Fold this protein.
Amino acid sequence: MFVVNYNNFNHLQKCCLVSLLLFPTNSIIKKREIVFWWFRALDDLCVEEVFVEL
């Protein structure tokens, strides 16, 4: 089982994770769509690196 402590995330990671709450429970979310969505929101940051850290 994969367990992560939300309190150990930095601010950016928390924002990205919280954005997933917009999707219905048990929905299938494609990584590519999320990465592009976050990229548009975060402009200059390398979203792939942020995603890997999550």
The chain has a mean pLDDT of 78.
